[in-house]
Design a protein that fits this description.
heterotrimer; A alpha+beta (317); B mainly alpha (270); C mainly alpha (263); A: 317 residues; alpha+beta; 6-stranded mixed β-sheet; 5-stranded antiparallel β-sheet; 17 strands; B: 270 residues; mainly alpha; 2 strands
Chain lengths: 317, 270, 263
Amino acid sequence: MSIIARNISKRFGDFTALDDVSLEVEGGSLTALLGPSGSGKSTLLRIIAGLETPDGGEIEISGQDATALRPQKRNVGFVFQHYAAFKHMTVRDNVAFGLTVRKRPRSEIRERVAELLRLVQLEAFADRYPAQLSGGQRQRMALARALAPDPHVLLLDEPFGALDARVRAELRDWLRRLHEEVHVTTIFVTHDQAEAMDVASQIAVMNHARVEQVGSPTELYDNPATEFVMSFVGDANRVGEAWVRPHELEIVNLPTDGAVEALIERITTYGFDARIELTPGEGEPLTIQLTRERLEQLEVEQGQIVWVQAAAERTFA
Amino acid sequence: MEGAGAALSIGFVITFLSVVVALPIAALVWFSAGSGFDAFWTVVSSPQAVAALKLSLVMSALAALTNAVLGTITAWVLVRDDFRGKSAVNAIIDLPFALPTIVAGLVLIALYGVQTPLQLDLGFVHFQATITFSRWAIYFALLFVTLPFVVRTVQPVLIELDTEMEEAARSLGAGEFTVFRRVVLPNILPGILSGLTMAFARAVGEVGSVILITGNLPYKTELASTFILQRIDGDPHGAAAVSVVLLTISFAVLLTVGAFRRHATRHERA
Amino acid sequence: MRKYLLRSTALGYLLIILIGPLAMMIWRTLGDLDGAWAAITSHNTLLAFKLTLYVTAIAVPINTVFGVICGLVIVRSTFPGRGILNAFVDLPLALSPVIVGLSLVVLYGANGWFGFFGDHGIRILYAVPAIVLATVFVSLPFVAREVVPTLREIGDEQEQAARTLGASGWQTFWKITLPSIRWAVVYGVVLTAARCIGEFGAVLVVSGNVEGKTQTATLRVDDAYQFAYGNYAPAYGIALVLAAMAVLVLVAMTLVKPREEAA
């Protein structure tokens, strides 16, 4: 079930949330909308769901024009950052809701709810109320609830934003495995680039109401289209006008054209890798990423002044 | 709060409440039984007393329920809608709280009394929007004095309500009325019940606003409160007896609704 | 569409029950300003207003002190009877004023448990003391009911901090607790005053309703209406003065409420 957004614009009073945004999402894929706050990503998601109406442009779901359809009719599953659990209903009734309002037969609802509770591992909590669940459990319930009516699309708005780091990592894994099992077209919004890179097969980077680039995590990392994408996705160093990735910086013994002098502030090792933080004569601090082996070969230490050179660099118009 | 300060305060509060509230009520209950159970029962079961009690309970329930519905709608409009003069309207809701009840009665007489300007004379038919000396008078007066209750208990609940729950319901396929019925209503119901209870308790004892407008006609527009008032000089034991009955019934209603309310909010304490 | 339906229902209802009648009363008074003014400024009316304000000036401070202390006891102490206390404080709200008046008549009457006051020449019933007692009774809950939820919400961390810094119980109360609930108290005072000014039923029973002596403003309005002989402007006039006081109360409420909620 593909999704196409064409020339979407949306303003809230003086604030432009989306400025002529277009995006194509393939059926069955797992796409992330990545960007800082205010970039328009949540607004775009809500417009796809029908929870907001665009000022201009169209939305197509599975080839049908959905722009004028109310959310009830779009058959999209939506998961909110703060769960939006029906706190007056049990977990079971929450998950069953989409089927109950469609007046499905009771036996069908019972079976489907049981299936989903098993999927999200909440069978033991079926008769509890959301207030009795932890944040992570509530979000799993919200996922089950959204999936129950077999939506064509699953939309998640910063789904792990309200959870603590460990639960976030667990649920990330979880979402990826779920997608492998269920294969529903999924779009999720996040401001955390590590999360997007980890989970999604396709990322749309957004900034200031525009889409800056769409591509796979590797594409975005290796071939960023704009300065913003370069700095937002993955770590980046600025050397004069050029941008360099941490693993593309080297320490050299003999300076060549373009090399800069820098003071080693800190050397950290973590497992197999190492990182060196440096302050150049002028300009912003630099970070070099390298293997422990290479670090040991270099034989440098904190407080030393060395020559740093870029093995590859990029400039943007 | 500890030590001498606490003990003194507790002592003060208990003494104050006893002298001001508990003792008078206890004296009243004691007094009502003063002439023996038979005398108590004679007054309380007399047709006029029963009629007055019934009228009070029924009219109070009607007014409270009407304000439950219209008060909820008003609260909804005040919270979710926006229009010029909304803050003035919001402020004026509290007027029945601030206005002396006798003035409330006069205010209603001004527009709906015998000299009402709201009349239509079409020669063969004469229509007058008068309510004096009728049960409509009681209804209107009780509507007036209980108007703020449900509005003010539902408003804060509506403000706190997570609109994302409604959005979630819509995304799951629920139509607007279903969203209201299955998501909004269950969450504002405790607020409505609180307001309804307070409105009922207020209405059942109302005096000032009904004393002028209803005519206090026995069996027709005489409420329990005015019945008691009439009897204080001539038959104080009887007046006390009916008072005790009114008290007991009110409390029974309050306790029942309170229990229902606790049941409806059990998911919060789970 | 639905929005306009709801809006017009709400506004229409308020117009019929509240705004319309009020406007009409103002209109009627304007119709005979002289008569209304004469009634308002008549000797007995002025005495009635004076009595109302006198009683209010006594009842409000009493109930304010009670309300604050009671609120503290309910929220901050470990007294096992807290729940019953709370129920008793709410009791006046559920009692008919007539029943309140009757209970006072029974208690302080010649054969009542406190009848000995009368035996010793201290007039309580059918005199100002009874009016004060009745007014204190009916306006008792308001300050306490505002203070209790505010105290609960604020929590006692600030007070704990003060104690660790060496403040005594009394100092903590004056410098920390009282300031933290001041808007709740003010709002409660406004409601209490409104209730005192507006009290009718209980005072009707216990006062004897003697013109110029034990007749409060509300009783005066009733009196003016009963003896209106078709011209109601005087009654409306006095009622309007009371209504104007109510509007002042409303304004005070509207100004204080946001401050109370922000606290």
